[in-house]
From TrEMBL:
<keyword id="KW-0547">Nucleotide-binding</keyword>
<dbReference type="GO" id="GO:0006233">
    <property type="term" value="P:dTDP biosynthetic process"/>
</dbReference>
<dbReference type="GO" id="GO:0005634">
    <property type="term" value="C:nucleus"/>
</dbReference>
<dbReference type="InterPro" id="IPR039430">
    <property type="entry name" value="Thymidylate_kin-like_dom"/>
</dbReference>
<feature type="compositionally biased region" description="Low complexity">
    <location>
        <begin position="113"/>
        <end position="131"/>
    </location>
</feature>
<keyword id="KW-0418">Kinase</keyword>
<dbReference type="Pfam" id="PF02223">
    <property type="entry name" value="Thymidylate_kin"/>
</dbReference>
<dbReference type="GO" id="GO:0006227">
    <property type="term" value="P:dUDP biosynthetic process"/>
</dbReference>
<keyword id="KW-0808">Transferase</keyword>
<dbReference type="GO" id="GO:0004550">
    <property type="term" value="F:nucleoside diphosphate kinase activity"/>
</dbReference>
<dbReference type="InterPro" id="IPR018095">
    <property type="entry name" value="Thymidylate_kin_CS"/>
</dbReference>
<dbReference type="GO" id="GO:0005829">
    <property type="term" value="C:cytosol"/>
</dbReference>
<dbReference type="InterPro" id="IPR018094">
    <property type="entry name" value="Thymidylate_kinase"/>
</dbReference>
<dbReference type="InterPro" id="IPR027417">
    <property type="entry name" value="P-loop_NTPase"/>
</dbReference>
<feature type="region of interest" description="Disordered">
    <location>
        <begin position="113"/>
        <end position="132"/>
    </location>
</feature>
<protein>
    <recommendedName>
        <fullName>Thymidylate kinase</fullName>
        <ecNumber>2.7.4.9</ecNumber>
    </recommendedName>
</protein>
<dbReference type="GO" id="GO:0006235">
    <property type="term" value="P:dTTP biosynthetic process"/>
</dbReference>
Amino acid sequence: MPKRGAFIVVEGLDRSGKTTQTSRLYDRLSQSGTPVKLYKFPDRTTATGKMIDSYLRSQSELDDRAIHLLFSANRWEAACSMIKELETGTTIICDRYAFSGIAFSAAKALPPPSSSSLSSPDTNSTNPSKSISTSTLSYEWCRAPDTGLPAPDLVIFLDVSEAVAQARGGYGQERYEKADMQRRVRAVFQRIAIEFPPVDVGRRAQGELEGGLRWINIDAGQDMDKVGADIWNCVEALVGGVGTPLGRLWS
Ligand code: Z5A
């Protein structure tokens, strides 16, 4: 049976270098002759994407649940094409995906974090799951609309401290680009990551990364080339194709 394409998602906080690294990875794969497609969510060009864009620029107001469902719909719009591409051997690289959807929406229901406990990349510094699950915009509620979407083989989380992110130009003008919101988002990403088996950056033998979603944290505070090299270490084994069937998120 021919192998399908690999599905690789890059997640991270603001200014962690997602766009830089997904485009570098895309270039590297296409130059080497690997069939590859780059997605970025939200896709602001579609009908739902235009509503999302207007909300993010604070040009319109929407209920927190309505915007959450629009972000999810924006992914579902692309899901059929993504599945076809993966099944016909194209590798997909994706700049943000459903994990951002949960992180940014569930973060709204978190109590204000203390900067000392949440600004470092130390994943053991908080236990956000309790407060998330008792809130009205609960973690489970936020996860539900994306259940059944194509599941990535690998999620690369670009981990960057608040100080480093700020040094890269600070936060922009959009709705979520504020230090307090970014700290809450980090806490929810930490909650999401514990659902998946951890993998070391150096672990890259084919087969070890197949058969279910893997989550890898990469220190995105390093220089761009080193971050790119760490990412390549993780994805190299997958780019020849994946022998296991495409999974579905949380199903
Ligand atoms: N959102 C949501 O609420 N729900 C959802 O379901 C989804 C998203 C999918 C979309 O923003 C917003 O929507 C986002 C989450 C929310 N809100 N926030 N915050 P977006 O996708 O349009 O923008 P972004 O993802 O936030 O991009 P970004 O933070 O602006 O940047 P980035 O892609 O992570 O980084 P970059 O553009 O590659 O790099 C930023 C700068 O740092 C740039 O000058 C680079 O040259 C520099 N850089 C990058 N890497 C390095 C290194 N290693 N060293 C030094 N400098 C570097």
